Amino acid sequence: SQQGEEDPQALSIQEGENATMNCSYKTSINNLQWYRQNSGRGLVHLILIRSNEREKHSGRLRVTLDTSKKSSSLLITASRAADTASYFCATDPNTGNQFYFGTGTSLTVIP
Amino acid sequence: GAVVSQHPSWVICKSGTSVKIECRSLDFQATTMFWYRQFPKQSLMLMATSNEGSKATYEQGVEKDKFLINHASLTLSTLTVTSAHPEDSSFYICSAIPFVGSEAFFGQGTRLTVV
């Protein structure tokens, strides 16, 4: 399969709590990106982390990358109802220029 | 950020007809464009990678004769779904990158319904 795996598949939390999503991939990569998708809409780029980086922050988002384990995590702190969406990781394998998406995590933040 | 425009945003067509979807990078030249397909509640599946002036590279299992991709310029790629059938109904999304290793910019997506 071209896809990476994400877990959990679905996550439901209360507003204000933190949400953590994990992504595992199969091949060595140039970079890994996280995207958000509201139901039936296009994708919004959240953050890009390069293979030589281990952690990156952007506002309430924190992304880690462990290339030895071929895994990444996305942490959303102090979640809001507006964070409700599907979140996908996408990898750019260094054997080519394609972007492959993980299976996605559906996040629901309950007000 | 950079803008990628996809048109149309939704289309309904009759079975057996062809549908063309356009993907334009509005404020940058895209060395590479990608076409994805997404079924409800599923992830995006890469269909093909398109480089300007050359033939598209299709992923395994994607019929190149059914999904025709043309990348005529550095700012425009088109996907034509030929002889569409109801099972082709899906959400199609394009993306474009200005250079290797950059963030990918996505179009708004096209919801295709074949009746």
User: What is the number of E strands of chain B?
Assistant: 11
Give the helices and strands of chain B as they follow along the chain.
Answer: EEEEEEEEEEE
Structural class of chain A: mainly beta
- The fraction of residues assigned to DSSP E strands of chain B is over 45%
Our estimate of the beta-strand percent of chain A is over 45%
Structural class of chain B, by secondary structure, is mainly beta
Distance between the termini of chain B: 37 Å
Which stretches of chain B are low in confidence, meaning pLDDT under 50 for 5 or more residues running?
none
The number of distinct helices of chain B, counting runs of at least 4 residues, comes to 0
Overview of this structure, please?
The complex is a heterodimer of chains A (111) and B (115). In chain A, 0% of the residues lie in helices and 58% in strands. Chain A contains no helices and 11 strands. In chain A, the strands form 2 sheets. In chain A, strands 2, 4, 5, 9, 10 and 11 form a 6-stranded mixed beta sheet that branches. In chain A, strands 1-3-8-7-6 form a 5-stranded antiparallel beta sheet, with no helix packed on it. In chain A, β7 and β8 (71-76) form a beta hairpin. With 115 residues, chain B is an all-beta fold. The mean pLDDT of chain B is 92. Chain A binds chain B through residues 2-3, 30-31, 33, 35, 40-43, 45, 48, 50, 88, 90, 92, 96-104, 106, and chain B through 1, 6, 32, 34, 36, 41-46, 49, 59, 91, 93, 95, 97, 100-101, 103-109, 111.
What's the quick description here?
The complex is a heterodimer of chains A (111) and B (115). Chain A has 111 residues and is an all-beta fold.
Task: Spell out the key features of this protein.
heterodimer; A: 111 residues; mainly beta; 6-stranded mixed beta sheet; 5-stranded antiparallel beta sheet; 11 strands; B: 115 residues; 7-stranded mixed beta sheet; 4-stranded antiparallel beta sheet
